[in-house]
Amino acid sequence: MFMEERQKDIIRKINQTGRILVSEIQECYQISADCARRDLKVLESKGLLQRTHGGAIAVHPKERYPAPTYNPIDIKEIKTDYLAVAKKAIEYIQNKEVIYITTSLVGYYMAENLPEDITITILTNSVTIAEVLRKKINISIILLGGEMSHRGHCHDFYTIQMVKNIRMDKAFLSHAALSLDFGASIHDPAGVEFGKAVMENSRMNIGLYPSKKIGKNSIHSVCQVKDYDLLITDDNVSEDFLIQVGELGVAIETVHLKGV
């Protein structure tokens, strides 16, 4: 089999199953591990897949626009990769801190899994997350208000003005997509200025991006990768992404999904 035929077949397999391992490529095509990795690198450079530790996963260049009434509480099936990133993020929270929690599914998982004995102040512009936090006695909640969207959160002029008057120790942020060229991006332009205001008023900005969000672009850029102090993702992330983030001087931590 010629190299081009092999690579075409690799794409066919990955589009069928969603992922492939280097060891599978070796066994199927009787080639070395180095040759298998070269194939994956070539295919990734063409935007046909996303390399991970030990293999590759299927890639979809652009995130789909969410439903107008989308809310994390509506997702009944636990997304283990999002949950793993959320739990790792919680490890960076210390007593007495003032923090912002993202309105995304990762933020919802953070709110659900915060320990009962931690004493912190949390800013949120999500009524859903505020309702989860309301039941945790040691947590003080600052609900950032304004005109509420049908998704249950606020990010208009009034919300931004509130954020500008509060200093945070840490902001935990997650957007629809993250790429090295376009940065963190979202579907709704109304959230751009709010996201910027949060980052400007936070001492430390932590990006929470399961690998499914990485290497993709949405429509409106909020910030660049270098604007984060720390990124937390899972171990399905591309090796090239890890290297390039390190070259930008941004700390990055990966959580292991095996057994999660």
Strand arrangement across the biggest beta sheet: 6-5-4-7-10-12-13
Average of the residue pLDDT scores? 91
CATH first level of the largest domain? Alpha Beta
Order of helices and strands: HEHHEEHEHEHEHEEEHEEEHE
Round the Cα radius of gyration to an integer and report it: 20 Å
Annotated CATH architecture of the largest domain: 3-Layer(aba) Sandwich
Helix content: 25-40%
Structural class, by secondary structure, is alpha/beta
By DSSP, the count of extended strands is 13
Q: Outline the biggest β-sheet.
A: 7 strands, parallel
Q: Please indicate the count of domains.
A: 2
Measured distance between first and last alpha carbons: 38 Å
Question: What is the CATH third-level topology name of the largest domain?
Answer: Rossmann fold
Q: Please mark out the parts with pLDDT under 50 across 5 or more consecutive residues, or reply none.
A: none
| SS summary, helix count | 9
What proportion of the residues form beta strands (DSSP E)? 15-25%
Shape descriptor: elongated
Brief write-up:
This protein is an alpha/beta fold and 260 residues long. It has helices at 3-17, 22-29, 33-45, 80-90, 105-113, 127-134, 157-164, 190-200, 239-247; strands at 19-21, 50-52, 55-57, 98-101, 120-124, 139-143, 168-173, 177-179, 183-186, 202-208, 220-223, 230-234, 251-255.
